[in-house]
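Cross-check.
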Amino acid sequence: MSASDFFRRASQRKPVKPFPTAVALLIASSSAVAAGDMSQMDGMPGMKGMGNVDMSDEGTNSSQSRSGSALQTGGAPRAKGTSGMDRGDQTKSPGDQPHPKSAASTDSNGSKSSGDAGIRVDNSKSPKAGPLNGPNHIIGVDEPRIPMANPNEGIPMQGMDMSDSGIYHQILINQLEYVKAVGGQGWSWDGEAWIGGDINRLWLKSSGERLYGKTDDARVEALVSHAYSTYWNAQLGVRHDFGNGPTRDWAAIGVEGLAPYFFNIQATGYIGTSGRTALQLKTSYDILLSQKLFLTPEAEMNAYGKSDPEREIGSGISDIKLGLRLRYEIRREIAPYIGFVWGRRFGRTADFSRRDGEPVTDTELVVGLRLWY
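Predicted model, tokenized:
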């Protein structure tokens, strides 16, 4: 190609735009797109008050970008409904208004309707405090307030009250048994009944044994008890002895309760006429072998301050009994049992037994029934 042809073709070519002009067009296009996206995000409730960014038309960069986008899009206005907030709300933090104004509107009757789902909520019965709609909305009720005389006691509810002033009762025949001993046979009993409440009760107790043709250690007691702690009762009353010899009357004072490890303890002191005194200690323990089978060891001791020859009782420790009974509860109220009882007399009481030809030591097989109502 000759030089003349080269210059001729070069003169026919269109001029190329400078590189900086192309870059400026690309930046303007990007700004216009960004400004359009931000205008749509302004209408979202979750975007209200993002940070402290000034999105008003007075901003320099943002306003120029929006102006450029408006010129390129032909000045199209913002779509209706994309933003229900004024520009002044954009500078507030999210916690300033927990319920956006665009989420619901209120009519003349006080009802509130959601702008998104069209749900109408009646605010006429709603409390002044609390949310007006949503999952935590509090629904008002027409029931009157329940008066509370003492806030520390709460509101009384029918059927939920507990009273410790009720009157209850129980009749317990702990031992009603046939006795087979080495030198004879007979029967014995031990029972009690009470009536009262949880704190104060009236007791009636009786026990005794008829063996070798005579009744020994027969007594009946009337006591008043008062619960001075959770597991212990103080008892005060009278005792009347009958059976072998003349009758005797005593004043009784003692304690009865449940010791640690569930031992039943009874300790009673007696004061009688002519300076007579006596002491009785009893203890028992229920061993649960199954839901219906119980093994109960027992121990009893009687002591007297002075001898009573007419009733064949000596001073000091009079007698001790140890028993072991196995019972089966057909029902809680009915329980037959079988057991073994060992007894021993001491001191002058043993001398009175030898004089009458009775053994000092008793080995007894017992079969009986335990009942309560």
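The chain has four helices and 16 strands. The longest strand covers residues 214-227. Passed to J.P. for a second look.
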